[in-house]
Design a protein that fits this description.
The chain contains eight helices and twelve strands. The chain is an alpha/beta fold. The protein folds into two domains: about 140 residues, Rossmann fold; about 100 residues, Arc Repressor Mutant, subunit A (Orthogonal Bundle), CATH 1.10.10.10. The N and C termini lie far apart (about 65 Å).
Length: about 250
């Protein structure tokens, strides 16, 4: 094996091993970190492949299917942002982005380009596992959505087709990331009601809201920009100070 070959590690096979939860692709140029994360994830019953450049990551994604991609922003040659642009916001593989601590620009750009969630370095591997499992649960819930919930939601000119993962405003098609679509779905299902940032973080992102976490605010900002609703119109996404966000209901 050369130094550029992907590192693939599977759990050893003790008597009655737990089944593999998912195959994780890690794209990070820090080889020591990749090795440490691989060893930890394997003990948590994940299969892991790690590569060390964005180009290698794209090649790996073309060769086989992974349940989740853990992607560092700062990569040699082909950056994490380049990978996100190449994949597109509607790519089927969920993406957890790794950013430098306190670098809000990287976080915002990554979420805008289609990342499902982010984690700032340095981080506790247990938190990485928790984020991965939260993203996988959301993906599973989307694929097994029951027929009891309506497949098409409409609030004023906004039409959200859940089955097609498609949003239209009047006759205009709007491209949203998976996280933005989940936030919009929450708002539309509760049109006219305030939803707290805590509830939105738990239901749309699958995790607890922690101090200084501005992910929901970023998604709301992106939704406002992409939906491009006229100011003061109904519906509109309103910030209810100290409470959360609300999609106003159009007049009947």
């Amino acid at each position: 094996m050369t130094s550029s070959d992907p590192v693939v590690q599977n759990p050893t096979a003790p008597a009655g091993p737990a089944p593999c939860e998912a195959h994780v692709l890690i794209v990070d140029d820090d080889r020591e970190l990749c090795q440490m994360l691989t060893e930890y994830l394997v003990t948590e019953h994940f299969e892991v492949t790690s590569v060390h450049d964005g180009g290698e990551g794209l090649a790996a994604l073309r060769e086989r299917r992974y349940e989740i991609l853990v992607l560092d922003v700062m990569l040699p040659s082909v950056s994490g942002f380049d990978v996100l642009r190449e994949l597109g916001a509607d790519h089927a593989t969920p993406i957890l982005m790794l950013t430098a601590r306190g670098d809000d620009i990287d976080r915002i750009v990554g979420l805008e380009l289609g990342a499902d969630d982010y984690l700032s370095k340095p981080f506790n591997p247990r938190e990485l596992v928790a984020r991965i499992r939260a993203i996988l649960r959301r993906a599973a819930n989307r694929s097994t959505r029951g027929t009891a919930a309506p497949d098409v939601l409409q609030t004023g000119p906004i039409v959200l087709s859940l089955g097609m993962h498609q949003v239209r405003v009047a006759d205009r098609l709007v491209t949203l990331t998976g996280a933005e679509l989940r936030v919009l779905e929450l708002l539309m299902r509760s049109a006219g009601q305030v939803i707290s940032r805590d509830a939105m973080t738990e239901q749309a992102l699958g995790r607890k809201l922690v101090p200084y976490d501005r992910s929901i605010d970023t998604h709301i900002s992106n939704l406002r920009r992409k939906l491009d609703l006229p100011p003061g119109s109904h519906p509109e996404i309103k910030n209810v100070r100290g409470s959360g966000y609300m999609l106003t209901a159009p007049p009947t």
